[in-house]
């Protein structure tokens, strides 16, 4: 250690790497003296918010994580639920927000690459991707940068998913001012595996070999975890561009096939992907979970740039790499398979019984740290939540306030970027590769993927950040209910949930309050729906110069339906069908899309939801869809009942004639959880009405949406308004 | 009758093509590094990104050992179907006339498209009626068919323009709305839309693509 001992880093270097003085002192204690450069770099990453969840771990412990279907819960690369017939579905959502704000195409692309690796790291073949995106307002001059980010992120997601042969089957996007300086790019992936084929990441067996395989290691993404993921963004972020990783989906495709073939042949003891903090985090976490030590010689790592320092090799975030533990007798077979798939494979070290992570350079030790200190002993912080006394967010800028009446209001809402058809986005994604996609985007409220036995998975991702901002607890509850409602509309029952908590700086009391309340809502709603959390991710410090993002706990939910031939659709399907509003729907204009367009400030709180009543309505709709009794089912969300009706007309290419009470604004355009628009034979709706609150509204048919005494808008006019996003992509 | 489906490291739709072919006959994957076509009676070059396609779609794949065998197989009259990236590979290998350029909308685009059958006599569309409409998904970013006018005239005269995008369906800007072409001998056929993704109404939106595989089974 003579070379590095000459220039031991000091406290100021630790501070520059994002550690606090107290944390630095704790590290010195663990190391019996000041850490050297390699050690400090590794501690700074593993003790970053991104890796250590130091402001959120205590909260996350309050979430429900157990249920009859859960096969693998939080803590592994991805969670997994039993889907019957010997199969499990692995799934997880993850964020790549800050990299995408710096370079949207690569940031989003590598976000997809990272979440896919999480899925195949546990031995599951990725079968679907969904995305959850947030940008600033995209219209007009002021929207130029947000349009650039949207365009780049969508192209990046498509590029990666399309090229690797995993369909992107769904997603959501919202445009709101608070995301202008801090966009959100969350990606969710699902995978399928035999129940017995799942592999864990715990290293085991001292003497076993550590094999790094995949792309070679370069200087890209160095310090990404600490510099990018754990600090607020500010002006001049183009300086951070070199820390954004560059993705190569072809490399990942080979890595995916190679990993799955290695597992299928039983050649691996354990497997782990390399994500944030690269080798540092993968090796330390494998050692921690297996309660062993590891030893890595950085000079045996295949490099892209020959002169890399040991610490650079250890923290590089070069993409498309995996780390596995192999029994010595299997090493040759492992390396031969790497050769077949044309990926680098190198034995870079060994599992030891030392309980330390030991870093060597050509056999010479250059760093050694106790595994426990690195992974488990990062201090956890208590939040100091306080409800803000004044509103955190300024009222939205009034943009398209409709003035002349209900027809104009409906068309304005349909054309609003938060409601308009997402076709220009999802058409850039291959939604059908792997021949499993029973419901493509805009065919149903949830994507539906057929399983071999004739059953199907359904998946939805959702979060209305504006409503969470108005009321973090109830807004989070609503997000969970919305996902479950989407599943109910295709006939699926929730099996498990994943979440990505996107919030501002948790060291600020009002953000801590948002986070605490939202997690409480998330936990309560998941418990009430029996949809336990099997994994997820936390992204904090999402703030720009003008303030924090809306609190955005993105919820991804996976469910199962017994017969894919009966998966529900959202569009009206048959002339003469009766249309009904089902469920305990109590719409209000506060925090609605219409209120936003009018520039109204967020209300202080949302109305309380009777979660049990919503759950009962969801069950009733789900059973009716499963029985094949309904022609269509769609949940009422942004834009309220009138927009939901218009969406059913547009998706099915059929008009409708309905009555909606006195036609009051709140009735037509108000929002709230618990409402479904369904269509079907009158007697089927009558039966459904015996199980849930139900009001018959009218009949499917004609060439227009007619709301008695209120509005009468032809289908072409509805379609033109709904198609407004197309011009953003010209 | 047996289909052989080529598999490159970056193939994406090879399993879909394999399963589609298995609906009408036997089928087996053929690894790109192998020259042995395993006695297949017809070859499918599937969609995807063969070797990453960083140079130009299909430009490297044509040199694969398996492709060398396919070129020989085609010259001897064997049936070869190229789908999407496979179509690009067959053009690069000069088994088919013309070339595929980046879409005129400059984006990867996935859309269910309506096609019209312009030649129902050949080996790939003999179960279709002349003028019949097929509903088949397309998904690509390099799908704009191009050939010079003289070649196009000759192709038209010899019935090599087999499929055309119906009116309003040509999102990629292909010349003369061309969606699928054959060679002069009629034993090699390439198209940008994916018939292997239209073999089951529940996931494909239609089963019209099966007609291509059934035609090949009858012709082989």
Count up the domains of chain B.
1
CATH class of chain B: Alpha Beta
Give, in spatial order, the strands making up the sheet with the most strands of chain B: 2-1-3-4-11-10-9-6-7
Q: Helix count of chain B, per DSSP? A: 6
Structural class of chain A: alpha+beta
Give the low-confidence spans of chain A.
Answer: 1-6, 224-230
Radius of gyration of chain A: 26 Å
Helix residue percentage of chain B: 10-25%
CATH architecture of the domain at 199-378 in chain A: Alpha-Beta Complex
Query: CATH H level of the domain at 199-378 in chain A: which superfamily?
Result: PurM-like C-terminal domain
Major sheet attributes of chain B: 9 strands, mixed
User: What is the largest interface, and how many residues per chain?
Assistant: A-B, 34 and 29 residues
Textual characterization of the structure:
By secondary structure, chain A is α+β, with helices and mostly antiparallel strands. Chain A has a domain at 199-378: Phosphoribosyl-aminoimidazole Synthetase, Chain A, domain 2, CATH 3.90.650.10. Chain B is an alpha/beta fold and 220 residues long. Chain B has one domain (2-219): Rossmann fold (3-Layer(aba) Sandwich), CATH 3.40.50. Chain B is globular. The chains are: A alpha+beta (730), B alpha/beta (220).
Give short descriptive properties of this protein.
heterodimer, A: alpha+beta, Phosphoribosyl-aminoimidazole Synthetase, Chain A, domain 2, 7-stranded mixed beta sheet, 26 helices, 28 strands, 35% helix, 23% strand, B: 220 residues, alpha/beta, two-stranded antiparallel ribbon, 6 helices, 11 strands
Spell out the blueprint of helices and strands:
The complex is a heterodimer of chains A (730) and B (220).
Chain A: H1 2-5, H2 11-16, H3 21-30, H4 37-46, H5 49-52, H6 57-60, E1 70-72, E2 79-84, E3 87-95, H7 97-102, H8 104-121, E4 125-135, H9 144-164, E5 168-175, E6 184-194, E7 209-214, H10 224-228, H11 249-264, E8 270-273, H12 278-290, E9 293-297, H13 310-315, E10 321-326, H14 331-340, E11 344-352, E12 356-361, E13 364-370, H15 371-375, H16 406-415, H17 423-426, E14 437-439, E15 447-450, E16 456-462, H18 465-470, H19 472-490, E17 493-502, H20 509-529, E18 533-539, E19 543-544, E20 547-548, E21 552-561, E22 578-582, H21 593-597, H22 611-626, E23 630-635, H23 640-652, E24 656-658, H24 665-669, E25 676-680, H25 682-689, E26 694-700, E27 704-707, E28 711-714, H26 715-722
Parallel strand pairs in A: 4-5, 9-12, 17-18, 24-27
Antiparallel strand pairs in A: 1-2, 2-3, 3-6, 4-6, 7-10, 7-11, 8-10, 9-11, 12-13, 14-15, 15-16, 16-21, 17-21, 19-20, 22-25, 22-26, 23-25, 24-26, 27-28
Helix pairs in contact in A: 8-9, 8-11, 9-11, 11-14, 16-26, 19-20, 19-22
Chain B: E1 2-7, H1 14-22, E2 26-31, E3 42-45, H2 65-75, E4 79-83, H3 85-92, E5 99-101, E6 109-117, E7 133-140, E8 144-146, H4 149-157, E9 161-165, E10 178-182, E11 188-191, H5 201-204, H6 210-219
Parallel strand pairs in B: 1-2, 1-3, 3-4, 4-11
Antiparallel strand pairs in B: 5-8, 6-7, 6-9, 9-10, 10-11
